[in-house]
Amino acid sequence: MSTRINISSPSDFEDVVGYSRAVRIGDHVAVSGTTAAGPGGTAVGGDDIGAQAREALTRIAAALREAGADLADVIRTRIFVTDIGRWPEVAAAHAEFFGAIRPAASMYEVKGFITPALLVEIEADAILGGRVTPD
Description:
RidA family protein; RutC-like_sf; YjgF/YER057c/UK114
């Protein structure tokens, strides 16, 4: 039987909602929807959706490291944006982080998030040993 490891972050939302930033069971790591939420309902990166995406991906990378994984183990991402017209900015940030890793990815437009300042939320799934070695 595999042990469950819950990874937390400083987010106030985790206690309020009752979730973990990431959960590892065996070789699988699931990272919750991650945003650029800052103090008092603000967003790190302000109105720059690309900066918000980079902050969310930085937080995802930190959660993966804490779970014993890294970005090279990511096999799938799900990206949620409040304005699909701004997809190129988010896509550029995703490409910066994943480059040759190229996980399966989806992007969806949603009405909004828990705090109106947030423009993007990203989830990730990783499998240890599923690592891509760039050519």
